Amino acid sequence: MLHDVGIKIQYSNHHEHSFYLILNSGLEGLLQKELLMSAFIALNHRTNKKVKVEAEYMTLLCEEDKRLIDKLSLFLQIAEYLDRSMDGIVKDIDCNIKDDVVEMMVLTTTHSVFADMIISECGKKFKRVLGRGLTIKNKVIAPV
Question: Which residue of 39, 41, 47, 107 is 20 to 30 Å from 15, comparing CA positions?
Answer without folding.
Answer: 107
